[in-house]
Write a structure and sequence with these properties.
Elements (H helix, E strand, L loop, with lengths): L8 E5 L3 H10 L5 E6 L21 E3 H10 L3 H7 L3 E5 L3 E5 L2 E2 L8 E5 L2 H13 L4 E5 L1 E8 L4 E8 L4 E5 L2 E4 L7 H7 L7 E5 L3 E8 L9 E4 L10 E8 L3 E8 L12 H5 L6 H6 L3 E2 L4 E3 L4 E4 L9 E3 L5 E2 L7 H19 L6 H24 L6 E2 L4 H17 L3 H11 L11 H9 L13 H8 L9
Parallel strand pairs: 1-2, 1-12, 2-8, 5-15, 12-21
Antiparallel strand pairs: 3-7, 4-7, 5-6, 9-10, 10-11, 13-20, 13-23, 14-17, 14-18, 14-19, 15-16, 16-17, 20-22
Helix pairs in contact: 1-4, 1-8, 2-8, 8-9, 10-11, 10-12
Length: 470
């Protein structure tokens, strides 16, 4: 007589973006998924507790947006219908790189989704929680993992009334973010600690929302980057057009040049960047909220792909937390979730060694985003953690050469854009045509200032926006 197959259970700790993407990845290959979330999750694109970083600028690069769409078809349409912007790159960005102002005459190479974090999360959450077998346990939190030093078999959770419940699972996924207690929980089971790498440039963020002085449809992302080659701390700023005809503005500085929460100083700090362009635009906009500050921005990578334990997976910031300056956190998590799905499709979640295989596959996109972040952060004065070696310094020199070339060469800018948006890995930058482009160097004189459209210039000057301008 045939036996009934044992149900395949997944337990996800954390109901944020990483947790709901993990649910989307494994829903087709499991019978039940429980998502344990400490805070109540709103049914609309509203702020939620436990996500203070939502008040800061988030760019969802093409590599992340495509990964999310592959996991949850229709999410892109939900974002755009709710007011998010699809921004073409490089022509939809006014960007001052360490090598100069980027030109905007090139065709679209990639894109990004510009929206408030609450909107991004809401669309993913709505889609994921509607999948068969997915159950949200809000008002509950994990307190310990269950199992042995060779296999995690579940977790104990505590509900809001103080009662505890044991939930068993074939796979436990930690998506609790930067403050994850998984290292302590695993240690309690006797699991040997995994290696950890930290690079901290001491970046502080200050962000504020503004009512835009013009319709944000078609409005560019404005980005003034830091230059680690300059003496002293690095400062940067970004204006993102988001839903509701608002701008989300984030300013940042490394140790010695940190912005504060003082509202009167926000525009003043923007004026100290390598270009005063952001400050000039802010003079034309109306603040609609307070200044919020974030300081927990260190790059921290826990190498769970080296762990000798099965049944446990860490996704997103729980495994690889990145400095938000480069906007790769959401995209790396989405690509990790897609890799998780692909391994589940190939071998099934109940197969021996599934979690370890999945963690190794998920480490690849995380490693690509990690290199992009720490390659810059480690070069700033007073950065702590792993220091650049000779190979790192030579690679940095090459990348800076390529960035300078990209200001006037489409081959270089397209390659950098593909890598920055996580649509290609770093090996693209050393292919013959890209190497030749870098060797040849800039082909045109540097732009003396930002390349503005008539509409963008009119806003800057406080004049009526030409209706026919593009």
């Amino acid at each position: 007589m045939a036996t009934t197959p044992r149900p395949r259970r997944v337990l996800i700790l954390g109901g944020g973006l990483s947790g709901t993407l993990a649910a989307a990845a494994l829903a087709p290959y499991s019978d039940s998924i429980d998502i344990v979330e400490r805070h109540a999750l709103p049914d609309t694109p509203q702020p939620r507790r436990g996500l203070p970083q939502a008040r800061h600028a988030h760019m969802l690069w093409a590599g992340g947006a495509d990964a999310i769409e592959s996991l949850l078809p229709g999410t892109m349409e939900m974002w755009l219908r709710a007011g998010a912007h699809r921004v073409p790159i490089p022509n939809g960005m006014i960007s001052l790189s360490p090598g100069g102002w980027y030109r905007r005459c090139w065709p679209e190479a990639q894109y990004l989704i510009s929206a408030g974090r609450d909107l991004v999360d809401w669309a993913v959450r709505t889609q994921a929680l509607a999948l068969p077998g997915v159950r949200l346990l809000s008002g509950a939190e994990p307190v310990r993992l269950l199992g042995t030093r060779s296999r995690v078999t579940g977790a104990a959770i505590r509900h809001g009334d103080g009662t505890e419940e044991v939930l068993e699972a074939d796979v436990v996924i930690d998506a609790t973010g930067r403050t994850s207690r998984a290292p302590q929980w695993l240690a309690a089971l006797g699991v040997r600690a995994v290696p950890e790498t930290v690079v901290d440039a001491g970046v502080t963020y200050a962000s504020r929302r503004y009512k835009a002085p013009a319709d944000t449809a078609g409005w560019p992302v404005i980005n003034v980057q830091a230059d680690a080659r300059r003496a002293g701390p690095g400062t940067a700023g970004t204006i993102l057009p988001i839903e509701g005809d608002e701008w989300l503005v984030s300013l940042s500085g490394t140790r010695g040049a940190e912005p504060t929460s003082a509202e009167a100083q926000f525009t003043t700090f923007a004026g100290t960047l390598r270009s005063p362009l952001i400050a000039e635009y802010l003079k034309r906009a109306e603040p609609v909220g307070p200044v919020t500050v974030a300081r927990n921005t260190a790059n921290r990578r826990r190498h769970y792909e080296k762990a000798r334990v099965d049944g446990f997976i860490a996704l997103g910031d729980s495994a690889t937390a990145l400095n938000p300056l480069y906007g790769h956190g959401m995209s790396a998590a989405a690509q990790g979730a897609r890799a998780l799905r692909d391994v589940a499709k190939d071998s099934g979640i109940a197969s021996k060694g599934f979690a370890r295989r999945a963690q190794r596959a998920m480490a690849r996109p995380a490693a690509a985003a990690w290199l992009l972040a720490v390659g810059q952060d480690a070069s700033f004065p007073h950065a702590t953690g792993k220091k650049p070696n000779l190979a790192d310094r030579l690679a940095s020199r090459y990348i800076n050469r390529l960035i300078t070339t990209a200001c006037s060469d489409f081959t270089a800018v397209a390659a950098l854009t593909d890598v920055m948006t996580l649509q290609a890995n770093g090996t693209l930058l050393v292919r013959p045509r890209v190497l030749l482009s870098a060797l040849r160097g800039p082909r045109l004189q540097p732009l003396p200032g930002p390349a503005l459209t008539p509409a963008e210039e009119a806003v800057l000057l406080g004049r009526p926006v030409p209706t026919s301008a593009s």
